[in-house]
Amino acid sequence: MARSIPFATLFGKSPFKPMQEHMRTVKKCAAQVTKLFEALCEGDQEKIGAIKDRIFELESEADDIKNELRAHLPKSLFMPVDRRDLLELLDLQDSIADTAQDIAGLLFERKMEVLDGMEQPLMNLVRRCVEACNQASRIIECLDELVETGFRGRDSDTVIEMVEQLNKIESDTDQMGIELARSLFIHEDQMKPVSVVFWYDLITMIGDLADYAEKVGNRLRLLLAR
Prior knowledge:
Blueprint (H helix, E strand, L loop, with lengths): L6 H5 L4 H27 L2 H28 L10 H27 L9 H22 L2 H6 L5 H33 L6 H33 L1
Helix pairs in contact: 2-3, 2-4, 2-5, 3-4, 4-8, 5-7, 5-8, 7-8
């Protein structure tokens, strides 16, 4: 699918526009994960397939932006950011979309059943992890202001506060993931051993969305500290 904004227009005089466009696409990809698990709770495998296709499409769009940015990024930038730092930040953003794709692939390939008592904590975890991705996207949207101020001043302080909020969200998801895993193990006698393994892996992958989002924020905070 063609992007609505040509890459050359996005790139302009700096790589930050396509970095932001990439994160917006990643955010859309993560948002589909909520719909994916809603369909799972409804037992609608056909809907899961349709959402899976959309996630794969968005992940491919994110890859296109990532690959073009890598290919066009100048060897040296007259900016307060090292080229390698931008590439590392880009890879962390991309890992969110990759994780969403992995989750979608698993739910499509293997029919998973949500046990009684697991639906609400599962959806709470998913929504909180997606909120972590949204917060990471808000932080990346601040790149323009940070560049204008040389990664210093009031805008820098605001971003640090946003990163701290993101860290809090990620900490919440850690605890929620532990509680959901406990609920899984309480019911493991009702499940086939292989199903327990797949569910544990799935819970871990959901948590990875928040982990990578937090790493995006922490990577930007590291740039502010230099």
